[in-house]
Amino acid sequence: MVARANRNWSWPHRSLSDAVAFCLFGRTSRTLRPTGCAVRSPYDLLHTAACRTHSSADEPCRRDTSSSLAGMGSYTRGLLTIEFATSTPDHVLSAFSGLAVTGRYAPALPPPVTEVWDSWTPDWREAGWPEGQGDPYPDEPWRHNWASELNGFLGWADGQWQLMCRFFWKTHPQVASDTLAWLAPFVADSRRQLVGFAHHEYDPAPHLFWVEDGRWDRQDMNPEGYLAP
User: Fold this and answer.
1) For the chain, what is the radius of gyration of the CA atoms?
2) Domain ranges of the chain
């Protein structure tokens, strides 16, 4: 089951890239230089994060034991960087508006969703609820308070709402991917783009999350034939 994140976020950053760098790495883009180059966009940062998790197929894979969750069970660490399309309806934005950090020119957001099911977690389907006793809105994921399960922010930049967050969920990358796939139709730009990744603590490599033309795709970067423990 998902481990609920402790969220304590502020906006002390000079730019969106600084905020994303801090969200992903705990440092600002001014101190982060992937492959010797300056950070150019939030997506450069996301790509850097994925590469840092699995830098090269030729290098030996090492289990990451730096997480504060190490030793507490089988967890997946994930990152998301999503630009919402301008056509995204308010009921979708309200699922994340609890993470909002608004500025002077940001438009008004709908109020955060009030959670209607106290037992809800993003991977509720894995909990084995008896038929009829699970999520009262199984086909309407935006009715839940996703902000309570993520650590990050929803900010306004370049005329769009942008979600930058990380998560620590006690589940597998495949489940995390299936859980987040509903977001694909609301991602700006129909071109194929990397929007996040999930890395199980016992896997040598992450699963990348891509969106193209409103469709979600998961790419497993682990070696062919690898079986997760």
Assistant:
1) 17
2) 41-55+66-125+136-220
